[in-house]
Amino acid sequence: MKQSRPAVRPRFWWQAGFSVAALVLALVTVISREWIELLTGWDPDNGSGILEWVIVAVLGVIAIALGAAARHEWQRATATSG
């Protein structure tokens, strides 16, 4: 018997997508902290690296919050469909 996927609201896909994007950017920043300077040419912390760690922390919090919100949406959809 084929199981049907729960009907989730578009909000779930936005939350899940932005959560993954934030996580990927946080990981890229951990691996190569200079990508921001390379991409923009802007170095506001004059090479100290503190801005990059703040960005990692903020993106990590965003990824966790949006991931939790997406999980909540998924659970809501499975509760109403099953």
Number of strands: 0
Total helices: the number is 3
SSE ordering: HHH
Share in β-strands: under 5%
Radius of gyration: 17 Å
Largest β-sheet summary: none
Q: What is the typical, i.e. mean, pLDDT? A: 87
Overall 3D geometry? elongated
- Unreliable parts: none
Class of secondary structure makeup: mainly alpha
The portion of residues assigned to helices is over 70%
C-alpha end-to-end distance: 15 Å
Overview of the structural elements:
By secondary structure, the chain is an all-alpha fold. The protein is built from three helices and no strands. It has helices at residues 10-31, 35-40, 50-81. Helix 1 (10-31) runs antiparallel to helix 3 (50-81). The longest helix has 32 residues, at 50-81.
Q: Helices and strands in order, then pairings?
A:
Blueprint: H1 10-31, H2 35-40, H3 50-81
Task: Describe the structure concisely.
The protein has about 80 residues and is an all-alpha fold. The protein has three helices and no strands. The longest helix has about 30 residues, at about 50-80.
Q: What keywords describe this structure?
A:
82 residues; mainly alpha; 0% strand; elongated
